[in-house]
Design goal:
- By secondary structure, the protein is mostly helical.
- It has helices at about 1-15, 25-45, 50-55, 60-90, 95-130.
Amino acid sequence: MDEILARFWGDLGGRVGGPLTFRLILQPAVAILLAIRAGLHDAQEDRPPYLWTILTSRDDRRELLSEGWKAVAKVFILAVLIDIGYQVMVFREVYPVEALFVAFVLACVPYLLVRGPVNRIARTAHRRAHQP
């Protein structure tokens, strides 16, 4: 098990300087753009911040996760496919768990971290613009 974890962490670090490095910028950027769009939409509908609501509201969690997945699924799948391509080029093997982890970090994490703050910023700006 220690050997697998050592390979896993070593492989992750190697992605930074290897082929297809531009995806480490492009995929999170696309996820962030999707999060900004969704956060602005949340602000228009006066919805609470996304990640906070997922963590605190059991009733809304399933619906919000489904909505978020629909928004980021294509970026996630593309991230998995590109990482598999990277693994084939560099390792000549495919490690599916690594591909899923990398895709989650590149696509889902930025989306989760950006959508709520965009909502809060947009709602605050809207309130200030409409105060007498």
